[in-house]
């Protein structure tokens, strides 16, 4: 009725006046005025976050990848991969000696970025296929927003046919999804930077393939395996916690299996370091050099048994025995021999495509994503600077979202300054995570392409496998009900801290 409309308009005018007074008095927000007294407790980096409801009581079988799942690696591994691949480019691919001057920069790239091979463009794309402006780089130099828009026909949008396919590899654009891709992105950017900086002509496709092959050679030639095996204390993290997780599951009668692309000798040495010489007794099935993701889709490769020395045996596999090691194989034979099917199986891995996608979409397994970056991002979210910055942006967004119409001042005068201030606040928030690309989970306001895949392909996600130690083996995870846009009350957005509300909540509580 007219009375309630008048009451609502008066409240909106009062709220708008407060915002304008704050903007008029200072360049940024006044923290004491913005954060409400009921700010929630901080997020726990050791928590497990649920995309889907799942009860561990129903899970009878636990499966694991090895690299970055059972074995977490220290960041000191990345510069060694970078340096070795850089030297391979120079010595075997005959790239310019000047590339050797580049060193690995751990703060340059983040996981989940896309690379346009034909444009030599490394960029961050959101869940709706839009490039986040300010996050496109050619080599080590940012590309102006106007140029990015021009490169894609006057839009920030990347059409579906150009995007990466199901496994992150499209005809011209690739997505870097695993943690090992961080040194690959850094090397690719450095090589492009050298060629552009010295005016050298090059074919973008050839350069991309050479860098990718050089990174692959580091793995194929076993260089990375040698470094880790020589100093496991230096490279392997959380080994005691991995042992605790596995032992606890076995003690509660759960079946365990391991499916990894890594070779047996490497896995064996790592598991002996973390778990002990009898580590195989914890697992019902161990499969190495599985060749994921084709392991999940290709029916042709049979299982091969390895002896104690890792040599291939010739006998036909009719059952999978505990304590034995198997190579290759395929998931269809695995399901037939074990009868482990559907939601009573929970598999953990770090690669959303190679480890989790097929298992969830094709086979109905439950999946858990290991995202080591989550721990750092949550610690940033918990900082006072982040909370104040995001609260301020929410306030400005609310003001811009149609509230200017309730003001008596001209809307054009009101809207420009909040837009500029919101844009400045977004850049500040982005830089808290990474100066070039921001958070791996969000663009300015939308989920990233990586984040959307994380939600689609995993029931649970966590920073490390050790997070399982914080929960009972019969615990039920309930995802929070996140309101859809049409379900949310008027300007009552919840921030990502879980229960922190927008400023001036008391003024808004009675408005519906």
Automatic annotation (TrEMBL):
Pfam families in the cross-refs: 5_nucleotid
Keywords: Hydrolase, Magnesium, Metal-binding
Binding site for Mg(2+): 65, 350
GO molecular function per UniProt: 5'-nucleotidase activity; metal ion binding
Gene3D superfamilies per UniProt: HAD superfamily/HAD-like
SUPFAM superfamilies: HAD-like
Binding residue positions for GMP: 67
InterPro entries (UniProt xref): HAD-like_sf, HAD-SF_hydro_IG_5-nucl, HAD_sf, Pur_nucleotidase
CDD domains named among the record's database cross-references: HAD_cN-II
Cofactor binding: number and manner: Binds 1 Mg(2+) ion per subunit.
Catalytic-site annotation from UniProt: 65 (nucleophile), 67 (proton donor)
Cofactor(s) required, per the database record: Mg(2+)
NCBIfam families referenced in this protein's UniProt entry, alphabetically: HAD-IG-Ncltidse
Family affiliation: Belongs to the 5'(3')-deoxyribonucleotidase family.
Protein name in the entry: 5'-nucleotidase domain containing 2
Gene: NT5DC2
